């Protein structure tokens, strides 16, 4: 159904988000301020004891600082209640007293048709479930018993059986008055080419119903009982209900389990999913007889930011992993990737759990490998790099793979990790240095000097390997916000989204945003959560002497300095990303377009970095002093880095 312009805006205006969310959570009254529409609760999407789930009624927006779930009332109903978009809209409209727009007659007709087909599928499922309990299903029951599939598991996954015979299901459904076109439209039977009655799609197969996220039976999967059958597994044909490339087995239950914090596991087939769920890994799904498609990958990322792809450790499993890597690379985003669980060769999840137990599976899941490792394995496994040409071939293939990553930040991190792995592969063959190394002319090069104590205690050491400029500006942003709590509300959205590359700064940023909504002393609340990180930050020399930190009463100066530091940090990182992206495109000499992009990136950074000294002479002097001091420290640190 298409909605008229303005309908959703009116709906959101009439909806109080806290009323919708309040049905699923218990508010933390100590942190919440209901009068201002500022509410906190333990997150309903992952298990936690602290209240890190924030609802802002004024903005109609929620955000979890733990699992990063975010959205409005519609997305909350979709995720928490497993509703479709239109179901969520209809629910909110009904509660708000709004009349839903009249449906398009053709769209309503199609919806009615799908409802009828879903009803036919439920009738077919009841037939298959009954057949499993008859004499005709004895062999199927024996097979399930040998696979140690309990009756409880069979009931949970609604497993059935299609006996031998060409028209068993057809005759049963027709006897219940179901129209022929509905049976054919549901994909349960096929027309005969010999002028006879249509024949059943599934015959002599164990039946696994496939449900959509709403719980409707949309298709069946059938496992052949005859070992000589050409197709061991057979799925329903695609219908108005069923699109194989956009569906997942066990989608609805897995979505609920993943929302509660369980790892999302993508296995290869029905029995793998059933075995994993039986062992307590309830957020398990499977594609339906094909390699994972782009649409299925997007579905997986809606369920979890980092699905675990579980593959057999044989050649076919590794081949499937490499195909998936090629599909996923262009789609990667920050917080959206894949990890891989490689099983021992010759074992599937069912085998592993039965032979080695649940704990063995849990250890493999905990040791899941990042995708970059599988990429490296694909390009290096079984190959010998004993010549410059072979090494160059490896470099070329890896460059081509990394260039497919659209996100410049992720592309840069992949490049750094590949460089590390490459050094491990080729650097390990270098002879270890023994004492001083000889130089030309028989002269000896003295052993490298150890870092001086002053260097170890310098700002570079405190930066923990992060870019010095990033470290300095991150520290200044946090220190200003901590010294001037009134700045936090004004700059809250920027403080929520700015990337803190130093781990200590990231902990401080999180504690700062949480403490800003708590009662009591801001600095004390932050210190209670991060311990020595706060003292270390405020003890940095460039922080102690900074004008907005020394002048704790000058809120205007603090706001102007904080805005400037945020802008400079954003501009530097934007320029960095633009330059990295442009450099990826360089093949030989730079053309005019690339030169222009690089110059524009430099100019953007220069504009953001200029102090607006004419705004206020007194404040301009302080801001200029702060900027000059930061630049001096950056330049000095860069020189020290080259020296040591």
Note the main attributes of this structure.
DNA Primase, Chain A, alpha+beta, single chain, transcription, Znf_CHC2, five-stranded mixed β-sheet, DNA primase DNAg catalytic core, N-terminal domain, four-stranded antiparallel β-sheet, zinc, DNA replication, 17 strands, about 650 residues, Dna Topoisomerase Vi A Subunit, Chain: A, domain 2, disordered C terminus, zinc-finger
Question: Short description, anyone?
Answer:
This protein is an alpha+beta fold. Strand 3 and strand 4 form a beta hairpin. Belongs to the DnaG primase family.
Question: Overview of this structure, please?
Answer:
Belongs to the DnaG primase family. Residues 552-592 form a coiled coil. RNA polymerase that catalyzes the synthesis of short RNA molecules used as primers for DNA polymerase during DNA replication. Monomer. Interacts with DnaB. The protein is α+β, with helices and mostly antiparallel strands and 644 residues long. It has four domains: 7-96, Zinc finger, CHC2-typedomain (DNA Primase, Chain A); 115-241, Alpha-Beta Complex (DNA primase DNAg catalytic core, N-terminal domain), CATH 3.90.980.10; 243-428, Dna Topoisomerase Vi A Subunit, Chain: A, domain 2 (3-Layer(aba) Sandwich); 459-643, no CATH class. It is built from 31 helices and 17 strands. The strands form five sheets. Strands 12-11-13-14-15 form a five-stranded mixed β-sheet, sandwiched between helices. The protein has a four-stranded antiparallel β-sheet with strand order 1-2-3-4. A hairpin with a 4-residue loop joins strand 2 and strand 3 (61-64). Helix 3 packs across helix 4, helix 14 (349-356) crosses helix 15 (358-366) and helix 21 packs parallel to helix 24 (503-515). The radius of gyration is 31 Å and the shape is globular. Mean pLDDT is 82; it is low at 428-447, 452-466, 586-593, 611-618 and 638-644.
């Amino acid at each position: 159904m298409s909605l008229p312009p303005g309908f959703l805006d009116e709906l959101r205006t009439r909806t109080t988000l806290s009323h919708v969310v309040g049905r699923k959570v218990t508010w933390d009254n100590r942190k919440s301020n209901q009068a201002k529409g500022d509410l906190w609760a333990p997150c309903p999407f992952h298990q936690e004891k602290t209240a890190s789930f924030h609802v802002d009624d004024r903005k109609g927006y929620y955000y979890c600082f733990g699992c990063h779930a975010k959205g409005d009332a519609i997305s909350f109903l979709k995720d928490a209640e497993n509703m479709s978009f239109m179901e969520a809209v209809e629910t909110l409209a009904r509660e708000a007293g709004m009349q839903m727009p009249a449906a398009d007659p053709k769209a309503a007709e199609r919806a009615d048709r799908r409802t009828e087909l879903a009803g036919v599928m439920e009738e077919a499922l009841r037939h298959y479930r009954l057949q499993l309990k008859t004499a005709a299903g004895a062999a199927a029951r024996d097979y399930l018993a040998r696979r140690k599939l309990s009756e409880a598991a069979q009931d949970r996954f609604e497993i059935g059986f299609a006996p031998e015979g060409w028209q068993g299901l057809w005759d049963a459904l027709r006897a219940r008055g179901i129209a022929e076109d509905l049976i054919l439209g549901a994909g349960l039977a096929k027309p005969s080419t010999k002028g006879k009655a249509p024949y059943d799609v599934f015959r002599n197969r164990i039946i696994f119903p496939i449900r959509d996220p709403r719980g409707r039976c949309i298709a069946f999967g059938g496992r052949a009982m005859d070992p000589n059958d050409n197709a061991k597994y057979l799925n329903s044909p695609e219908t108005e209900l069923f699109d194989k490339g956009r569906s997942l087995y066990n989608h609805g239950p897995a979505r609920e389990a993943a929302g509660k914090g369980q790892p999302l596991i993508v296995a290869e087939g029905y029995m793998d999913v059933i075995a994993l769920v039986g062992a307590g890994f309830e957020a398990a799904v499977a594609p339906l007889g094909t390699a994972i498609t782009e649409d299925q990958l997007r579905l997986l990322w809606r369920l979890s930011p980092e699905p675990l792809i579980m593959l057999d450790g044989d050649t076919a499993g590794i081949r499937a992993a490499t195909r998936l890597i090629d599909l996923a690379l262009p789609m990667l985003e920050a917080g959206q990737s894949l990890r891989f669980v490689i099983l021992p060769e010759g074992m599937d999840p069912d085998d592993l759990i039965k032979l080695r137990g649940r704990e063995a599976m849990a250890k493999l899941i905990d040791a899941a490998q990042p995708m970059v490792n599988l990429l490296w394995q694909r390009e290096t496994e079984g190959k010998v790099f004993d010549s410059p040409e072979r090494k160059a071939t490896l470099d070329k293939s890896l460059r081509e793979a990394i260039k497919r990553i659209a996100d410049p930040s992720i592309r840069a991190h992949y490049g750094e990790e590949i460089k590390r792995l490459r050094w491990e592969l080729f650097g390990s063959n270098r002879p270890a240095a023994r004492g001083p190394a000889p130089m030309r002319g028989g002269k000896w090069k003295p052993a490298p000097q150890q870092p001086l104590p002053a260097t170890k205690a310098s700002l570079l050491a405190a930066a923990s390997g992060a870019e010095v400029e990033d470290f300095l500006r991150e520290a200044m942003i946090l220190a200003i916000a901590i010294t001037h709590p009134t700045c936090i509300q004004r700059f809250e959205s920027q403080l929520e989204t700015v990337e803190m590359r130093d781990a200590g700064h990231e902990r401080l940023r999180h504690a700062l945003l949480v403490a800003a909504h708590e009662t009591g002393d801001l600095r004390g609340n932050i210190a209670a959560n991060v311990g020595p990180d706060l003292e270390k930050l405020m003890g940095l020399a460039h922080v102690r002497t900074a004008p907005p930190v020394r002048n704790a009463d000058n809120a205007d100066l603090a706001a102007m300095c904080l805005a400037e530091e945020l802008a400079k940090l954003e501009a530097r990182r934007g320029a960095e990303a633009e330059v990295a992206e442009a450099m990826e495109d360089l093949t030989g000499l730079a053309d005019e377009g690339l030169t222009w992009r690089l110059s524009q990136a430099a100019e953007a950074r220069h504009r953001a970095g200029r102090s607006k000294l004419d705004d206020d002479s007194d404040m301009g002097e302080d801001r200029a002093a702060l900027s000059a001091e930061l630049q001096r420290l950056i330049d000095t640190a860069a020189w020290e880095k080259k020296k040591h």
